[in-house]
Amino acid sequence: MLADLFAKRLVIVSGKGGVGKTVVSSALGLLARERGKRVLLVKMDDQGRTAQLFGTEPLSGRVSTLRDGISAINLDPVTIAADYLQRQLRVRRLVRHVVNSRLFQNWFRVSPAIKEMICLGKVLSLVEETSWWRKAPVYDLVIFDAPATGHGLGLLKLPEQASKLLLGPMRTGALAVGALLRDATRTALLLVTIPEEMPVNETIHFYEAARGLDMPLAGVVLNQAAPRRFEVDDPDALAQDLTPEVLTQAAATLFAERASEVPPEAFRAAARASCQRRALTERYASELEQAVDLPRVEVPFVFTESFGTAELERVASHLREVIAASEAAR
User: pTM score > 0.90 for this model?
Assistant: First the structure.
């Protein structure tokens, strides 16, 4: 499932806020680059998260380089609109005057749909952008870290709605964006969630709505999944004299250096919490399996005080193993 994403031109990563969309989309970018792809990560209202993951300066409304082969942009509607007007009017001073005018600022403030349509139009232009000297795509893969599911669903519905209301070039652009979003040969939608009630419910709702829009759905990533660390699932069944020896290999690795320092009660508490978290993971994985007819990938929870480049590499490494296993099974 994940390997198929690298054959697309546009991958849209969507999910409820806080489920790790930016981490998953960034990890996919790393893996695509390993496969020789020129990758562009497209963000909306990034707020410095991508910079934290890659250890770079915060993103701007212009394309910047994160690593060799990976670029990124944080979509800014005003900048995009100014670029559009520049192409139409061809007078930079006049464009600056229009963009800075009170009328333009008020129009932007009260017309969120226009701003979002402008951003989607920019995504289309980035997907279709070619180098002037060899007419090949500038980016082999554009990964769009879409807004949270509630807002993101409205964003995906917007091109069809806008095409019925707009006229002229903007209507033509809306139709082109809608065609791209529904084109399974070029586009794929990847859903990201975590094993909690509200994110899973939103994912199921988003899945059903996206099917109604004929969106090319690729799969679901169950992020922050709790691994199975013990031989039994019931925390009450764990022996009272719990020691590192009864832990599975993963837990033994986790506690190895401090095993002699941790009192038995702390081991029992940790075991109980781990079993409970694993039970939740299995419960919500089952709900997804019943309600969402898509391939599912689990990404284990990364225990860390801060999530940066090293942790991003760990997620990418896990996804790399999943992809290698699925390709070997074909």
Answer: no
